[in-house]
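Re: that chain you flagged

S.,

Sorry for the slow reply, it's been a week of failed gels. I finally had a moment to sit down with the sequence you sent. For the record, here it is as I used it:
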Amino acid sequence: MAGTAKTTVCVAAGAAVLAWGVAWVYMDDGIGLPDGTARKAAPLSSLEGGRRQAGSVAQRQEILIGDGSTAYTGPQPGLTQPRRLAPGERPPQFVVFSWDGAGEDDNRLFSRFRRIGHELGATQTFFLSGIYLLPESERMRYRPPGRPRGASDIGYLGSESIRRTLTQVRQAWVEGNEIATHFNGHFCGPTGVASWSPAQWRAETAQAKWFVKHWRTTTGWTTTPPLPFDYDKELVGGRAPCLEGRHNLVKAGRSMGFRYDSSGNGEQVWPRKTFGLWDLPLQRIPMPGRSFEVLSMDYNFLANQSKKYNGSPARRPLWKNQMRAGLMRGFTRAYSGNRAPMVIGNHFERWNGGIYMDVIEEVMRDVCQKEEVRCVSFRQLVDWLDVQDPQVLHAFRKLGVGQSPPHGWGVAPAEFVKKPGVRP
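Prediction finished late last night. Pasting the structure tokens below so you have them in one place:
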């Protein structure tokens, strides 16, 4: 991948590939679904978003959708319209905490970080893997591109984990968090998502939506409360497995209703659009004690530390401090510099005894309550970006990593001059 030689991408954690059935058939003019039907891709959509507001959620009327797995309950609670910056106003420091996979297994990490975010007034993005709502007994409904029916490089969840995941997704949305997608089978490598065409990405996304919108059909749990959102409107972005296949994913993005993509890797600079989508990549940040930078994701620290999920307990305190220092250095050089939104990626995993999860909690508690810091979801971030003056954002993009405006934030943006960034 592009970037420094030591930058590493995330991979699936040890699940075997299942091998049943026949290949998937793709249609350029429609999307095949697990129930055998086909339909056109969803149109572009947008919902209101903005800063979290405190307060309880009032009684909301449900309008059931499809088999009743989801329901329209009105605008998402706790969000307001974002505001355009006044001329010369310093932008807030946005920080996005995001989670790949987003299932609630026996580790109970989804609920842990949902509660922490709610306590801090921080919203997050949960990239839900569609098959986490599909019972393994129903796996043949999944037709992955280039793989046999039912195949997946991540494991299917058991019934109790699916129930818990539904509970967490439901509560997360009510609390203002975003439910995005990590797609389904997490296929990495040259024959995986990296090889998919735009049509295959559309087919994969349509299936991810179908699993979320039809879990009552696949589980038989007809009395379980529905998810309180219309997923066709809720789903506006995703992150590709292993950060691979992005080139064709973004080509398909607009036709799938996406407004952003977070599958790339980049630097701590202000984002721009690619194929009409906001490009919000993981970012290269300092790796303390090393001569290179690392992507702002838990797995990438692990890959440059223990290189395995259960490394030496004696070295874990060092690794923990190294990751925390790296994230805080990345945050500080943005916060005191160009104010570029910071993107942090994570997995609900207890790698190396859970040190990475503890670091994320510590960093959330440290940064989310600082002055002028807004810990938000990707959806809220793009809502804010979309209402800003394009010329102002263009001027922000001229600022290098860690670089403040040469004459301060109160001057006209046209006076910003790109200079070499400072890397503490």
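What I noticed first: The longest strand covers residues 93-101.

Talk soon,
D.
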